[in-house]
Amino acid sequence: MNNKDTDGEDRPLKNNDGKALENNNDASGEKDVCIKKKSGLSRLSKIRTAAFFGALFLCLTVVFAFSFIIPCPVRPFSERTWNVQFNNSVGYPFLATEDVNKDNVQDVLFIFKTDIDGKLNVSCVDEGFQSPCFFLSALSGTNGSTIWVRPVSDGEVQLVDCSIRNLGGVDSVGCLLIKKSGFILAIDSKTGHTLWEKPTGFASESTVIKPALKIPDVDKDGVEDLMVFLFEENELQSAIFSGKNGDHIGQKWRIGTDQPSGYYTHVTKSNAQYVLFYKGSSITAYSVSDLCAHTAGPEAKQLPSMQDTDWESQRNVSAGFIPIIASSSFGKILYIINVPGRYYNNILVVKSEVSELLDGQKFQALWSVNTTNILSKPALGFFKRDVLSIIMELETEVNKKKVIIVDSNSGALQWEFELNLRVARQNPAVLNTGDHRSTFLFWGANSPNSNSSMELEEYLFMFHPSHPNALLQLNNHTENIITFSAALFERSRHACYVLMTGPNMTEDPGTLMVSKRKLKEDISNAKVIWFGNEEVNTEAIRDDFFRMRYSSH
């Protein structure tokens, strides 16, 4: 029994050898398949694991590289304030801000006349000019250092504009100058180098009317061209110059016989462009496409005509222009300002007695406001969130002025403040803030209730609608202010103002100063003027202004 049992255990399938062998072969096949499947899955799992850790390693490598190996771009350090002084010089009333050296900080472009050639590392003689001569210069917005400076003319400069893009075919902003001597000059604002210089063909007694007008590419060379208006031989004329090389395109064309005080460019609802010349109390409009066609001549490529049916329906066919305001209208026109409306642009006509907003399509008066003895060019800002307002300065009596802000939709008064007036006639400036409103900046001697005995001091005042009963009295100046500008020197931050002070073109040479000041620098030491009835924490108001964020839009 025991032997049988043992034998049976040792050879359990001895009585079914064939069948047992067959079954055994089947089992082995299934086992091989399972092993192969497990082996395939194992390899796939290993590949996935390797891919995961490889990707993880790559990500960590990139993070490590950007964090420790590859240096972050160095943000330029901007000084809070800087001053640059020029001796024996006079200032020209031109000031522009542009990122010249591409460090994401606005730089300062300006013109002055001097005879201190040697101290500038360039001289009037370098360009064949007699000393003294005019220099165009770019100063770094970060610290006031000279990026470049070059002589541009030893005679009168009739026009300068440093906002023309693609001038000379260069992918940047360029400066355009027209000299009394009869030359038109284009300068690369990045380097100060000449892009081109050509004779204008203008008579020496001609008067150029500012600014130059950017027009479509008339000669089809890939660069927008320039139209210049001038008064010559008792005629208002137009001339076109190539933006790429300065060549004169076509011939001068006679527009009329009146010398305008200035002109303004208006874009209608249908995107047609018109030039509005104003003189006395009248405005006459001309289609830009018509001016191009007449001035460019047959040798230039024909541009498509862009005209507005509403405007053309009011054209005086015999005279060849569109009358906007009859010559019998009340008051002398001082400025024309574009005011964006809900559907199209409207026209603010600022006159010596009364100013009115005209509908940009029908020329109907939408509202008017008394502007007797207006002192400066109005500016646009936001008193209410995303609703345009207009700031104006009016002389009310001897040595006093009133600053008013009116709603652009209705002309309703939104805010006013009266202060003392000295000699400054600088235009107010506006900086938009992050709350969709604006900071308004304007000059004055001091507030009427001030006890200051410094009669010669000129103050910069700052107002924001978040504190309608408060005003900040900022930095003061005793020097003559030639020109003043406010700008964001860095996108959405670093709000500053720039001053050119010293002798102007009609005075004897002296010390000319160009300076930049950060608003926060002045706010820290500003005096809060409160004209409300309730008690107020002036330190809290100052802190609110100091923490204010600014917007590029």
Distance between the termini: 106 Å
Strand order of the largest sheet: 4-3-2-1-31-30-29
Give helix % range: 10-25%
* Beta-strand residue percentage: 35-45%
Rg, Å, rounded: 36 Å
Largest sheet: 7 strands, antiparallel
The shape, in one word, is globular
Number of H/I helices = 6
On the 0 to 100 scale, the average pLDDT is 87
Structural class: alpha+beta
User: What is the number of beta strands?
Assistant: 32
Enumerate the spans where pLDDT stays under 50 for 5 or more consecutive residues: 1-25
Describe this structure in words.
It is a single chain. With 553 residues, the protein is an alpha+beta fold. The protein has a domain at 18-69. Helix content is 16%, strand content 44%. The chain contains six helices and 32 strands.
Keywords:
single chain, 553 residues, alpha+beta, seven-stranded antiparallel β-sheet, five-stranded antiparallel β-sheet, 6 helices, 32 strands, disordered N terminus
What's the structural blueprint in terms of helices and strands?
Elements: H1 2-10, H2 17-69, E1 81-98, E2 107-114, E3 133-139, E4 146-153, E5 157-165, E6 173-179, E7 183-188, E8 194-199, E9 207-215, E10 225-232, E11 235-241, E12 248-256, E13 262-267, E14 273-279, E15 282-287, H3 288-296, H4 309-312, E16 322-325, E17 333-340, E18 345-351, E19 354-358, E20 365-370, E21 379-384, E22 387-397, E23 400-407, E24 413-420, E25 429-432, E26 438-444, E27 458-463, E28 470-477, E29 481-490, E30 493-501, E31 510-518, H5 519-523, E32 527-530, H6 538-546
Antiparallel strand pairs: 1-2, 1-31, 2-3, 3-4, 5-6, 6-7, 7-8, 9-10, 10-11, 11-12, 13-14, 14-15, 15-16, 17-18, 18-19, 19-20, 21-22, 22-23, 23-24, 25-26, 26-27, 27-28, 28-32, 29-30, 30-31
